[in-house]
Every structure is written in C-alpha cells, then in structure tokens.
Amino acid sequence: IMTMTVSRVSANKAQGGSNTTLSPDGGGLFLASASTNTIIRSIIDGNQCGRRGGGIYIAGKLRMINSLVTGNNSLSDNGDGIYMLSGLAGITNCTIAGNSAVGLWCAGGTMRLVNSVAWGNTDDLAGTMDVSYSDVETADAFWSVGVDGNISEDPVFVDTDMYRLEMTSPCINIGQNASWAYSAKDLDGNPRINNGRIDIGAY
C-alpha cells in the first residue's frame, strides 16, 4: 500500500535484470496492491519504461487527486502517462499532458476520470473508461462533448512545464463539486474551490 502526498516522481527508468535494458512496465511507479494506493498533490514526470506505463503502471487500486502527469514515455507507446491493466482507479482533478504518445490507457479494470484535463498527448485517452467533467483534446467513442460535463476546448495553459491555467481558461469554475474538495488544496497549495465551483485539472 502506498500513500504519496506533495511528492515528485521524476526522471526514473524501469531497468531490466541486466540493468542495461528497460523493464517492460512502470517507469515511475508500479502499483499492484489489492489495497488502495493514494497519490495527492504530486507530480509524475519524465519517467520511462520499455512497454506499459511510462509514468504509472496499475494492476491494483489507485486514488489520484490534484496531481500532474507529464513528459513520460513508454517505448512501445502503451500508456506513456498511465497504463492500467486491471483493478480500480479514480483519477480526479488531475492534468495529464505532454506525454510522448498515449496519456492514459485503460486496458482492463474500471477507471473513472473526473474533473481532469487530458491534453497535448499524441492520443489523450485509450481503451475505455468513464469520463465526466473533463477537458479532452482527442475524440473517443466512450465519451462525448456536452455529455456528463465534458468539453474539448484549448485549456489555455500558462506554460507547458507545470500546465497551470490562464485566467481565461474554459476549465475554470466548470467542474463537479465534491465534499472532499471544500477543505482540499490544489497542486500549488491554493484552495481547491474558489467562487463556489471547482476548476478542471490539477489547479
């Protein structure tokens, strides 16, 4: 079981047994616990693996909130940001952007993406998952613009490093409020809810 808060997992490589080749899965994190792993207000960036899950590989349970997944790479382009083989995952108020190919791939299990931005990956989402109140650039059959609060509009990032939102971003004040958010902080440590409604993404 892992609980990670206000942390950064950066520039790791999943090494093979000879320590000279990349291991198949989980460049940054390999999560296979039947109990729930938790990631809050953290950054997963610049990690690499050989096959699945450049940033995070999931074969268990994950609750991820107010976090950024960016700049990760799977050499076979299978879930460069996050790859899920099985289990249960809730990705809430996260930004998944700028990964080398597929941002988030759910190949099995149950995944729910809520109040999140998936943008600027070659393919933002793959497999199948529940998507609501999220801003996604690339189209998929399992979610639709205008349904369950989803949009596909340029989130207007301040930069492509930390992916904070400009004040003009369409992602501001259009998320789905939840009880946990009223006392929570975003990735920068600011109140999660301002002006009565939560923003989409990690900030």
Describe it.
- The chain has 203 residues and is an all-beta fold.
- The chain has no helices and 19 strands.
- The strands form four sheets. Strands 1, 3, 4, 7, 10, 12, 13, 15 and 16 form a nine-stranded parallel sheet that branches. A six-stranded parallel sheet has the order 2-5-8-11-14-17, with no helix packed on it. Strands 6-9 form a two-stranded parallel ribbon.
- The model has no long low-confidence stretch (mean pLDDT 95).
List the helices and strands and how they pair.
Layout: E1 3-5, E2 8-10, E3 29-31, E4 36-40, E5 43-45, E6 48-49, E7 56-65, E8 68-70, E9 73-74, E10 82-92, E11 95-97, E12 102-106, E13 110-114, E14 117-119, E15 123-127, E16 130-132, E17 135-136, E18 193-194, E19 197-198
Parallel strand pairs: 1-4, 2-5, 3-7, 4-7, 5-8, 6-9, 7-10, 8-11, 10-12, 10-13, 11-14, 12-15, 13-16, 14-17
Antiparallel strand pairs: 18-19
